[in-house]
Structure formats: structure tokens, C-alpha cells
Amino acid sequence: MAPSQKQFDKASEGPQLPIFHYQGDIHLINRVEDVAPAVQELQKSAILGFDTETRPAFKKGESYLPCLLQLADEMKCYLFRLNKIGMPQEIVELLADEETLKVGVAIRDDLVGLKKRETFRPKGFIEIADLAKEQGHHKLGLRSLAEVLMEVKVSKKMRTSNWEKKELTPQQLAYAAADAHLGLKLYQILKKNSL
Fold this sequence. Notes:
Strand order of the largest sheet: 1-4-3-2-5-6
CATH class: Alpha Beta
Number of domains: 1
Radius of gyration: 18 Å
CATH architecture: 2-Layer Sandwich
Helix content: 40-55%
CATH superfamily: Ribonuclease H-like superfamily/Ribonuclease H
């Protein structure tokens, strides 16, 4: 029996890359009183991985504000549930602080959404796709860059899940933390490659 086209495509893909699993600590912040200590901890790092999650819209004309803000350093990731806590001043100040670098992929859309929650002037943000483009990379998404630069696959399974659920699942937390942490890792690799 001849192999199907699907089997042929699978075989020609080469070796399967391992799935990336975030190994650090995850801190879920869903009370306003927990924001200040979390931000103080994050400010100890010069560079943070940055991402947001938004509840997906499936109907025409439907849209939602970012409901989760992820900020990661080397060892831990803080997940701020913006749909529960809003945008407290400490978060706004961190996002406007040019001393603390925030790095991520496709951050422009994230910032547009965050500014709909609270007006602020973002400072200290670096778009990883721009660095990758300067180094000759053509596929500039987080998942593509992770495959090329880190030789890992990134699961997309949770991307379209409901990020405004009352309780987020462990899978959602791991997915959200991984996205922010990968941003930090990719930035470090690209900076090292540019030396």
C-alpha cells in the first residue's frame, strides 16, 4: 500500500521538536492588594518577557479588552488578571518605565489593547520580531522563532480558550507563562547573536 500524502509530509518534516514546557514559578495576581508586591519583585529585573491574553471573539463586531498581562523574569512569571483587578497604578508605572525593558513578539497590538483599559505612554518596550528581521529571519512569530532559535515547539492549544473564565486552568496558566518567558529567552538569544 502506498503511503498517503499526509504520511509523506510528516516524514519530510524532519525530526519532531520537543514541546516547550515552562519550568519556573507562576504567580497569579487576581487581587489588587497583591499587585504592588508583585511589581516590586519584577522591578528587580532589568528585562522582562511581556505578553497579554484576550478572550477570543467569534462574532462579527465582537471584541474584548486584554484580560491577562504576563510579565516574566528568569525564574518566575506573574499573571495579572486585568478583568478582575483593572490596571492599578503600579502596573501603569511599570509599563511606562523606560529603565525596565519589556520584550515580546507582536507587542504593538497588546499595547493598543492595554491603552484601551488605561491611558499611558509605553516606554522600554522592544519588539523581538524587529531584532529577528535585522538578523535575516523571515518567519517572525513567537512560535516560528522558538522553533528556529530554541529548537522547541510551542503549543497553540490554549490560545483561543476563554481567558475571562472565573478560574483559569493549570493548562492556561502554563501556556500564558510560557509565552512571556519565551519572549525573554528569544530576546536573550537574539542579543547574543548580534554581538
